[in-house]
Write a structure and sequence with these properties.
Length: about 170
């Protein structure tokens, strides 16, 4: 006679159903869960370089350039409008962010007739020099940020916004 413990037909059927059910649940749920959380887990792509024009279009006088950056926020993709003020002097490209470092208004080159050749923020009368340095005695306490730049061929590309490298606030 065998020592092995016999299992009833009912127990065998229950184990079989549990095993099959678990396998089917895992098979169905794994891709669903992956689909649901994949965008959130996906590594953010390196900043895209945006072409903004031929280098011959820019000179020592700041030129305003509007462009759009594709933004992915989880499952939602959008295009965010952005602006840069670009100068090219001695082959060096400088692309400044127009966002005032005081409270985030938008600055304009030569925006105040009383202060030519400066960036002007109309919100609280903030001023910046051409390289983005904040003018002492006005509300901004730091220089304008700048975009990373590169030139390929004759095309100017802008990357991420970084702290101003020419000026330390
Ligand atoms: S937000 Fe620009 S000076 Fe205040």
């Amino acid at each position: 006679m065998s020592d092995r413990k016999r299992i009833s037909r009912r127990t065998f059927l229950m184990y079989s159903l549990m095993g099959t059910g678990g396998f089917l649940a895992a098979t169905i749920l794994t891709p669903l869960v992956r689909f649901a959380i994949d965008p959130a887990l996906k590594a953010k792509e390196e900043s895209d370089w945006i072409p903004v024009g031929d280098i011959s279009e820019f000179g020592p006088e700041p030129t305003k350039v509007d462009f759009k950056v594709k933004q992915v926020d989880g499952w939602y993709e959008s295009e965010v409008p952005q602006t840069a003020w670009i100068t090219v002097e001695n082959g060096e490209v400088l692309a400044l962010s127009p966002i005032c470092k005081h409270l985030g208004c938008t600055v304009n080159w030569n925006g105040s007739p009383d202060h030519p050749n400066q960036y002007f923020c109309p919100c609280h009368y903030g001023f910046y020099e051409k390289n983005g340095k904040n003018v002492p005695g006005t509300p901004p306490s730091a220089p304008l940020d700048e975009y990373e730049t590169k030139v390929e061929g004759t095309t100017v590309y802008l990357g991420k916004i970084v702290p101003n490298r020419l000026v330390r606030g």
